[in-house]
Write a structure and sequence with these properties.
nine-stranded mixed sheet; binds fe (ii) ion; 2,3-Dihydroxybiphenyl 1,2-Dioxygenase, domain 1; single chain
Length: 362
Amino acid sequence: MPDECLPLKAIHHVELLVGNAKQAAYFYRHAFGFSQLAYAGPETGIREQASYVLYQGSIRLVVSTPLTPQDPMADHLRRHGDGVLDIAFLVDDVDACFAEAVRRGANVALAPYDRVDKFGRIRRAKIRAYGDTLHSLISTVDYNGPFLPGYQVRRRPSPGAGLERIDHIVGNVEDGRMNDWGTYYNKVLGFHQFMSFDDKDISTDFSALRSQVMAAPNDMIKFPINEPAPGKRKSQIQEYLDSNGGAGVQHVAVATRDIIHTVSVLRDNGVEFLMVPGSYYEKLWERVGDVHEDHQAIRDLGILVDRDEKGYLLQIFTKPLEDRPTLFFEIIQRQGSDAFGKGNFKALFEAIEREQAARGNL
Ligand code: FE2
């Protein structure tokens, strides 16, 4: 399939729908080191929602909340709780991309429309992904404002935590739907399968999952898709689906060049991470070979390490960031490896299962 028909240039932003955007913005600023750039709400002429634009490195995170119970987003929030609403792509030509996506079978959420303010005009359309997740297609070539029309600059700087860019965004879908969604990303957006994991790769004594990693033509944007697999107990993916009211984004992985610095800052700020037992580190250095970062710091912070033929990676996962066990973040530092830490799956999923058991969901 010729990918030139649908050139997604980058992730423009990720929008979280939350119950209280004012407090969520404070949390992501103070816990994760995001700086605030702009705000949209009643004071800027937007009646239905309040939204805060946060950034760090090339990552732009928008946290939004509906302002009335009649707003359709209020029902979305009741069903799913706080989580990812929209993974928005930057494109050059919204109308051409939208028409091509529809021709290839995209589920339409909103046909192309304009938004205008004193800084110019943007064009935007929305297509559907798994669950109630959306992909906006946005063109800003005719726009010179701080973010998008309706937003005004409202800066709240933060010292940051070294987060640089979005590495991958993982979706959880219902049992038996992983291949359908892989095919959807392939057919509609021209993604290819980058790698896949079956339940033999990802299982513990109790539960299992399958995963298919879909990647954009330039491999810049990667979207792994998980589904639960049968096991002795409830899969962590099923716990997510039950809590989220269906499919949705499970985690956003953000890359740093210095994971020891980043995780130290995040921990000091109160971010909670999944911890693997000390025994994980007993055979680690033998398994992964030469790793430049300080071994004691890696162990003290609970960072996981894995190696493949191309190099190694360091990674760590936060606990869910909501009371519902749904969305969490991964922090990742890549040193040559472009994989996902397969060697850590077992230790990681056992750590998740201990949390599941504590919630009475295993
Ligand atoms: Fe990940």
